[in-house]
UniProtKB/TrEMBL annotation:
Top-level taxon: Bacteria
Pfam family, one: Metal_hydrol
Protein name, per record: Metal-dependent hydrolase
Organism in which the protein naturally occurs: Alloalcanivorax venustensis ISO4
Length: 287
């Protein structure tokens, strides 16, 4: 069943430009828990970051496999911008992950990377190219709604240590800029509703299981598993009222709509103000 969104590409296309930032993360070496001085929030985000370099290469390959289906020159530029931005995300998060690893978490980071690569290799082997693109569209929705949560919550950003704050703001801006690229391409290639939902639920389940397991492993290494009050506070910040995760749950359900399109939530008004907070990019290339 192929259902096209009534709002498909209704929003004027944003320029999708790769920007290499070369973040230095100055001061991170002296900061144990960089997100609200909270181990649960910090390690949850650290674990997500570990998945980005390899995960975003998977996204790029899934999109690149079908870009020849697109004739529109502007959409070809959008795809090039998507590929370039994801490549930059991989580089910046690899640098961040190396610093996290060097804070005594080498074995855990390597284990998490190994599991990530195993899961992605399984996806490449067992999913068709169309299913890989559908999975990419679904996981891009998850990254987009987490990005939206960050951009809408200045109070949340202020709780991030300055050494890493710009990384997450920059990443959130670019995830917003290209949030419809994989989805639109999937609509061109297949557009099947049930395939889109199957891969979305599967991707969500794997991401939840992976994040929960490795966040807990990081917390165990720090001994936080024996600190119930600290754990409870951190879990409330994630899943309680206006939590980092709970705030994104309503938007997660939007993907289940047959007429869903990422730009039905037009949050372009958030981008300019946040861009103004960032340093000048080391490299900025037109898509």
């Amino acid at each position: 069943m192929k259902l096209l969104s009534r709002s498909r590409r209704a929003v004027q296309r944003l320029p999708i430009r790769p920007r290499r930032m070369n973040f230095r993360f100055k001061g991170l070496e002296n900061t144990r828990y960089w997100f609200d001085d909270d181990p649960v929030l910090t390690h949850f985000m650290n674990v997500l970051s570990v998945t980005f370099p390899d995960g975003e290469r998977f996204f790029v390959d899934a999109v690149r496999a079908f870009r020849d289906r697109v004739d529109d020159p502007q959409r070809q530029k959008d795809i090039s911008g998507f590929i370039g931005q994801e490549a930059m995300h991989s580089l910046e998060h690899q640098a961040f992950n190396d610093l996290v690893s060097g804070k005594g978490y080498e074995a855990l980071v390597e284990k998490a990377l190994g599991v990530t690569r195993h899961l992605l290799a399984g996806g490449r082997k067992h999913l068709s190219a169309e299913e890989q693109l559908a999975a990419t569209a679904g996981l891009e929705h998850i990254t987009a709604i987490l990005a939206d949560t960050i951009l809408r919550r200045g109070d949340m950003v202020e709780k991030m240590d300055p050494s890493v704050r710009d990384l997450w703001v920059w990443h959130s801006i670019e995830e917003t800029e290209h949030k419809a690229v994989a989805f639109d391409l999937y609509q061109d290639v297949d557009g099947g509703y049930w395939r889109r939902q199957r891969t979305f639920f599967t991707g969500t389940a794997y991401l939840i299981g992976f994040s929960a397991y490795f966040t807990w492993q990081f917390l165990k290494q720090d001994g936080v598993n024996r600190q119930p009050l600290t754990l409870a506070k951190g879990l409330w910040k994630m899943f309680g009222y206006r939590g980092v995760v709970s705030a994104a749950i309503p938007a997660w359900f939007q993907y289940l709509r047959p007429d869903f399109h990422p730009w039905q939530d037009d949050n372009t008004h958030l981008l300019d103000a946040w861009r103004a907070t960032l340093p000048e990019p080391a490299v900025s290339a037109a898509a």
